[in-house]
UniProtKB/TrEMBL annotation:
Belongs to the UPF0719 family. GO terms for cellular component: plasma membrane. Its main location: membrane. The keyword Cell membrane applies. It is found in: Cell membrane. The chain crosses the membrane at residues 12-32, 53-75, 81-103, 124-142. This is DUF350 domain-containing protein. It comes from Nonomuraea pusilla. Keywords: Cell membrane, Membrane, Transmembrane, Transmembrane helix.
Amino acid sequence: MTLLETLARGAGLIGSYAAVGVILMIVGFYVIDFATPGKLSHVIRSQRNPNATLLATSAMVAVGLIVAASIWSSGGRLAEGLAGTAVFGLVGIVVQTVAMMVFDKIVGISVRKLVQEPELQPGARLLAVTHVMIGLITAVAVI
């Protein structure tokens, strides 16, 4: 394989994984959006709510960890890697959503209430760490 072919193949792989990663991050964002009152992008951009921003950011980090682990574990097999990335990414998003509901019902930390608070709350920090750790656990399970 020539250098040009190698570079073209590598660029294609990066583009494919990046597209799946971006789609998963958008899905994750809208799942958080569904769990919060109002439009999440408005709450972050206009109201500059630190709790909503932290929760959305931590969900994106978690999805990114899962995508990176899926790429790593694919061993260069594009179709398998993309399928694994999509499935494992969606599983991570579902688990994050379930964790938010569990924290709401069992621990009493409501995402809906957190994003209405103008100051950064300890509960948002706890949920953010939970998001990242779920992403890490899922990522390690993929590897």
